[in-house]
Amino acid sequence: MQDAETRLLIVDDDEMFCHVLSRAMARRGYDVLVAHDADQALELAQRHRPGLATLDLKLEHSSGLKLLPELLAIVPGCRVVVLTGYSSIATAVEAIKLGAVNYLCKPADAEEILVALGREGGDPDAEVAEAPPSINRIAWEHIQKVLQEHDGNISATARALGMHRRTLQRKLQKRPVRR
């Protein structure tokens, strides 16, 4: 397998995650390319034209949401799944609007990622939550929405939320609250 449909670009700053996922995908016959930052991802995309990609939402010095349109400008037909340990409704909606075919919460294994890359449409049978989200989850979602509105600028987001910048940074370092 060596065509664009089997060429997979993994963009994530977590080297161990990249190592594990690239080995799993290579065992499944994919030609795997790995980038740990936006510049490296764009260079690999330009050179190799992958047909598939996984893109971490929160890169060390960038945002996957900022990288997504740049990647798709280079490889318009690329099917991209955004992966994140910091999921929110706001970022999921933006990822899809920007051209991702799917959005998955980490941890996600190779099979889940392949299913997400291959899905062609929405699932009308998707599970609907039995109860509304907790107040902590709503707060997390609101912070993510305001952060997105301020292009990831923590100082501007903290001002908009009326909180100290360090307090916001501590909240952002935590994993998102489950429902």
Task: Report on the architecture of this protein.
There is one protein chain. The protein is an alpha/beta fold and 179 residues long. Helix content is 47%, strand content 16%. The strands form two sheets. The protein has a five-stranded parallel beta sheet with strand order 2-1-3-6-7, sandwiched between helices. It has a two-stranded antiparallel ribbon with strand order 4-5. α6 (135-149) packs across α7 and α7 packs across α8 (165-173). The longest helix is centred in the last third of the chain and has 15 residues, at 135-149.
CA distance, first residue to last residue: 41 Å
Strand content: 15-25%
Number of helices: 8
Cα-atom radius of gyration: 17 Å
Topology readout:
Elements: E1 7-11, H1 15-27, E2 31-35, H2 38-48, E3 52-56, E4 58-59, E5 62-63, H3 64-74, E6 79-84, H4 89-97, E7 102-105, H5 110-118, H6 135-149, H7 154-161, H8 165-173
Parallel strand pairs: 1-2, 1-3, 3-6, 6-7
Antiparallel strand pairs: 4-5
Key features of this structure:
single chain; 179 residues; alpha/beta; two-stranded antiparallel sheet
Short structural summary:
With 179 residues, the chain is α/β, with parallel strands linked by helices. The chain has helices spanning 15-27, 38-48, 64-74, 89-97, 110-118, 135-149, 154-161, 165-173; strands at 7-11, 31-35, 52-56, 58-59, 62-63, 79-84, 102-105.
